[in-house]
Amino acid sequence: MTRDQLTERILDIKREKRLTWQQIVEATGEMADVLIVGALLGQMRLPEALAAKSAAFLGLTKSEERMLTEVPMRGQNSPMPPTDPLLYRFYELLMVNGPAMKELIQEEFGDGIMSAIDFDMAIERQPDPKGDRVKISMSGKFLPYKYYGAGPGVPPNGAKNG
Amino acid sequence: MTRDQLTERILDIKREKRLTWQQIVEATGEMADVLIVGALLGQMRLPEALAAKSAAFLGLTKSEERMLTEVPMRGQNSPMPPTDPLLYRFYELLMVNGPAMKELIQEEFGDGIMSAIDFDMAIERQPDPKGDRVKISMSGKFLPYKYYGAGPGVPPNGAKNG
Amino acid sequence: MTRDQLTERILDIKREKRLTWQQIVEATGEMADVLIVGALLGQMRLPEALAAKSAAFLGLTKSEERMLTEVPMRGQNSPMPPTDPLLYRFYELLMVNGPAMKELIQEEFGDGIMSAIDFDMAIERQPDPKGDRVKISMSGKFLPYKYYGAGPGVPPNGAKNG
Amino acid sequence: MTRDQLTERILDIKREKRLTWQQIVEATGEMADVLIVGALLGQMRLPEALAAKSAAFLGLTKSEERMLTEVPMRGQNSPMPPTDPLLYRFYELLMVNGPAMKELIQEEFGDGIMSAIDFDMAIERQPDPKGDRVKISMSGKFLPYKYYGAGPGVPPNGAKNG
Amino acid sequence: MTRDQLTERILDIKREKRLTWQQIVEATGEMADVLIVGALLGQMRLPEALAAKSAAFLGLTKSEERMLTEVPMRGQNSPMPPTDPLLYRFYELLMVNGPAMKELIQEEFGDGIMSAIDFDMAIERQPDPKGDRVKISMSGKFLPYKYYGAGPGVPPNGAKNG
Amino acid sequence: MTRDQLTERILDIKREKRLTWQQIVEATGEMADVLIVGALLGQMRLPEALAAKSAAFLGLTKSEERMLTEVPMRGQNSPMPPTDPLLYRFYELLMVNGPAMKELIQEEFGDGIMSAIDFDMAIERQPDPKGDRVKISMSGKFLPYKYYGAGPGVPPNGAKNG
Amino acid sequence: MTRDQLTERILDIKREKRLTWQQIVEATGEMADVLIVGALLGQMRLPEALAAKSAAFLGLTKSEERMLTEVPMRGQNSPMPPTDPLLYRFYELLMVNGPAMKELIQEEFGDGIMSAIDFDMAIERQPDPKGDRVKISMSGKFLPYKYYGAGPGVPPNGAKNG
Amino acid sequence: MTRDQLTERILDIKREKRLTWQQIVEATGEMADVLIVGALLGQMRLPEALAAKSAAFLGLTKSEERMLTEVPMRGQNSPMPPTDPLLYRFYELLMVNGPAMKELIQEEFGDGIMSAIDFDMAIERQPDPKGDRVKISMSGKFLPYKYYGAGPGVPPNGAKNG
Amino acid sequence: MTRDQLTERILDIKREKRLTWQQIVEATGEMADVLIVGALLGQMRLPEALAAKSAAFLGLTKSEERMLTEVPMRGQNSPMPPTDPLLYRFYELLMVNGPAMKELIQEEFGDGIMSAIDFDMAIERQPDPKGDRVKISMSGKFLPYKYYGAGPGVPPNGAKNG
Amino acid sequence: MTRDQLTERILDIKREKRLTWQQIVEATGEMADVLIVGALLGQMRLPEALAAKSAAFLGLTKSEERMLTEVPMRGQNSPMPPTDPLLYRFYELLMVNGPAMKELIQEEFGDGIMSAIDFDMAIERQPDPKGDRVKISMSGKFLPYKYYGAGPGVPPNGAKNG
């Protein structure tokens, strides 16, 4: 059994039982929506306790439940550039705004990156009379480039408030 | 003169005059930071009034000022996948979380996309005792797929609250 | 069951029953042809009412009918550049005329794009003594780039009639 | 002198003299807008009479005028997939709607293609209270696949009205 | 059943019955060899009469016969650049001689292309004492670029004999 | 001086002196048109005698003349797939007809290839009341795969008339 | 049955019967090792007599035996650049030494290529006290570019000893 | 001035003055060798104090010195896969050993990654009678995937010692 | 049976029997962890003795055991660039630090490479109060480029201590 | 000065002075032809003594001479797949014969590779009445995969004569 086969099976169950992701997330337990749905789509792992509840709710086998707790080979179901319009828009935002984002983050924080691992994201509906909006809040720990071997007087990464 | 040559010249001026983006943004006028910096890096255009102020502050020629008001061929300075670590992390976030984002947005809003055109973004420092965080807030208008020719009883896009 | 398997099955049924797309479209109900055929080929979704009629006409199972109402991962059955000559011609038209289209649309509408979501298309035969022509009419809402944070005096997107 | 250098020079002149494409098109003479602008951007050629008028209006040299009448190596200034959002939307429309377009054109016309050479296109503003729309009308001669060597009773290309 | 599966089945039958393409072509009826073999390999369609004879000769089912009359998604079994040496040589000829071919065809015919749709090809053995040669004769209709909207005095495409 | 710079210079001279390829070919001497034009475009070499005459006619320096006799790094000015429509049609013909060409050549000649080195090509106008045609005649020596080490009874390459 | 399936089956038989390639080559008959093993791996064809012996030795069916005599679609099981280190080294040798090889072969032989069709290769162990070496001897017929249409005084290809 | 131009200039100075990297590193000050050399090659930034010393030693201008303190667009001078053999071996090691490294790191540390930002590396000569060896020591902080929103009983990332 | 199928089967057994890699490595015998796990994942071979023990522990068939001793086609399960974050970080480290690594290794050792074949690697946990670290120690034999044919006075590869 | 600029300059000198590679190699001194020519084309380095003689013969500056002794970034002037026919044939030979070469080398030598660093190559004319042949002799040290950590009874790499 591959992780792709498990994902396909979960989507079949969801269709057969006419479940929503919201119902599945609630039955799985407490964790960010995007992480639970990501795990069921083969991009994240579920902690053991959540995997057990999710498997029970969906009617998975013990072996399938255990596979949900394994770290998957991430990123393999996402053709890049994305062919799907919903996903492509995020790719485009990065392509167009990337240079400015790099300059603004570095001027504020110094040399480093926003972590994609110690990272949280929420997706919400933002009501708007001109048409509701998708609001996406991302928060990732800033990780400064470490200057190993640098003498004591060297500030960490050229940060403004270093 | 190409837009790339203008961008390079602006970066040279910024270095020579030891300016920060914050100073340049303030001198340019009122508009989202990411749009002003994006325009100076050749990814956006500046409205005429802002271009005039920015050019005056930086010491650009009339012709350079006018070029700043032209819509550029966007996205050409962003190799994809990004080779730069700061930018790559956003690419990775899309690759890994994309499948879940698609499912969650569609379950909430129905068939459609978040606009990358009617779109706003802010980047902030989020103080945190375990290490400050980069907070990125995105908000884009939801655009439902239009079902042209569909009869009157058909809801717009399969949305929950359609 | 994957969406590709459903598409293949629909094509098998169409062949076995010697149906035309026109017959299938009529049996499915009121909506643009390109949307109905697109859904049956796995690129669009069918509203519930239309999926029910289409499934009844083709003899699909309940599960297959429901899958027709799901938003597919779009664009995955279209190798780019297209290997098929009929499709390649459109790709070529974009490659050759793209620069002029960008200039003409922007001069007329200002900075922005034609929506690919709020978009309608019709394909017709245009009789011509020198050989009939394929007439394709596209109409997409113009979406101006939003200048968030811009002061009140700034016109929306540099449009001629802004 | 390369064609790219000529294109860049024309854009410099347009910026310096604060010309619009509409003014340039009118000064160049009678031909579809998209063809004239395409030629000035290095994707089409101008007939001699139009090249002369265009060159006079823009102030080009004899050699530059002559280059405008040469057939260019088309398509080389269009990175594919397009990085620019305005152009990408057309690429996406082809990727998403391509399979349906192929089926619908073939069912109506039989085996063949829409010509990209005997082809006309117009771009217009379509006023709409919900937001003006970009209307693009394309018309290309249908070219049936020729069945060379086929006996007399064989219809040209499986066309409906063959 | 996919078109690839049909192709594979035809190759199995050919191997089992020890048939040559020449025998199959003769049994299928009158049409250029390259078109008949192309159709059996999934790149062309067979007119109904020829599909019936071909299917009878090979022992195909009704459904398989009908699939032979469908226009295939062309070009999908040809990796490019070709990995096979016989096919690669044609690719190389285009790469090396392409620039000269473009100049010579345009000088003779004006701005336009050789049609790949109204196109005929024959492959023959050309006996030669220094080693027999493969002779390939191609003939495609010249299609001049149409200058839509051009005034009456403009020759069609800059042709020598326009 | 690179070969590309020489090619660009020759094109500048041709434009300035308003020469046609036919005039240049005649002044260069006796050899297939496609080879002479190919050499001037940097894809072939000219024999010394022809290089001398060509250089004299065009007004090239001794060093430029000598470069024309050097074997170039072939194929570097031909983006593949070709972006230019005239060249793309040949690419498409190979993609679509390649599988049939391979079968037909191998059934006639056995295992081997048509040489792209011992190869001749001519391009002609084929008058036709329905529209003149481009006629391309190719002839390449058939090169059978050599079965080194094979015993005496083994025919060269499975050829029909081996 | 595809050629890949046959290759996989031969590898299964080899594993089950614990055969070496040397044993298989000897049982197949007289021909260069690299050609026999290449055929069994789906890259070459076996002459009929050798296919019969090979099939008998391995226990293949008549249909499988016949497939071994068919010319395969070469090169499809070799991802390029090679991911396997043993194969990559040859790729690297070409990348690094290619420019020098081109110059040296052309200075000695004139304009042309080493044939990859009339080509022989042997792989041997070269004992060496500092570590045995892999010795690869290649020999391919030199094929001079033919200057079709060239006058009588033109030497074949600029060769030193032309 | 671009960063590439600065890198080229530094390499010219190093060649003219016959400097070694070791001399440059010592003159620049205290920091890991790989970081200092990386900065001078345009992949890292130098802290201000070190940039000043390095610039003085090399004879750079004030503007060049300041550019050394800017964060570069990383990774743009490294074609991937690397064409250079020394660099390719590391690429190959990752391709071949990657799957095992992923399993072993995850079994030891749980779900997460080794940081490429909080990362140190040293390169040393390891004397060996059979031939000296290159010893590379890497050390990167382990960053566990954060399970945002997970309840209190959930261990951080499935780590053995979580 | 393909090597991929064997890998998948081993992962299924590991999941069913709830084994860790550490248990499997210990049961397989003495050899570097990364080599044993690599072999079980289809990237390395196991010596016969170790394959026997591993197969007995996992419950593999004789044929599967024998396949473990075969040299695999390496590198085929590693998409590059890696889509998985854990693996991508190593790719990024090479892209960013590659230029400096090349300079430092060559200055110390002269012209040559670190072997990826005579190579050893160990992965360890490095406890650290600020967060444990992944320590990776690599050691590969330095292989100097051989200057074949060079006279006696030429040092091997420009090495410092040559 | 970049290495590419130096290569271009050497080719200009060679053309101006009408030198052959043979003359340059002889003037440079004793080393394999392919290495000397490779160095002058920017793919190898010259030992100091040879660089001095080569520079004197060609009339290079001191700085150019020194650059010839530097290790270049190898492989960057070789587009892959090669567009040039002479070079492509070697690429094709690897693609077609690669699988057999891997099997034959591994059966003879065990698990490992032929070194591309401790490697020698010679190119010769092999006179043949049916047409002279290019003979290429390669010899590279066999490098067995090292099984680090393996117990004493384990043979090095599964070699026949291990």
TrEMBL record, chains A, B, C, D, E, F, G, H, I, J:
Residues of the active site are R89, E92, S115
Q: What is its EC number?
A: 4.2.1.104
Any idea which UniProt keywords this protein has?
Lyase
* Lyase found in the keyword field: yes
Q: Known InterPro entries for this protein? A: Cyanase, Cyanate_lyase_C, Cyanate_lyase_C_sf, CYNS_N, Lambda_DNA-bd_dom_sf
GO MF entry, a single one: cyanate hydratase activity
Chain ranges of the Cyanate lyase C-terminal domain: 76-148
* Annotated catalysed reactions: cyanate + hydrogencarbonate + 3 H(+) = NH4(+) + 2 CO2
- Pfam families according to UniProt: Cyanate_lyase, CYNS_N
| Keyword flag RNA-binding | no
Q: What's the family?
A: Belongs to the cyanase family.
What PANTHER family is this protein classified in?
Answer: CYANATE HYDRATASE
Its function, per the record, reads: Catalyzes the reaction of cyanate with bicarbonate to produce ammonia and carbon dioxide.
Indicate what this protein is called per its UniProt record: Cyanate hydratase
Species for this entry: Candidatus Rhodoblastus alkanivorans
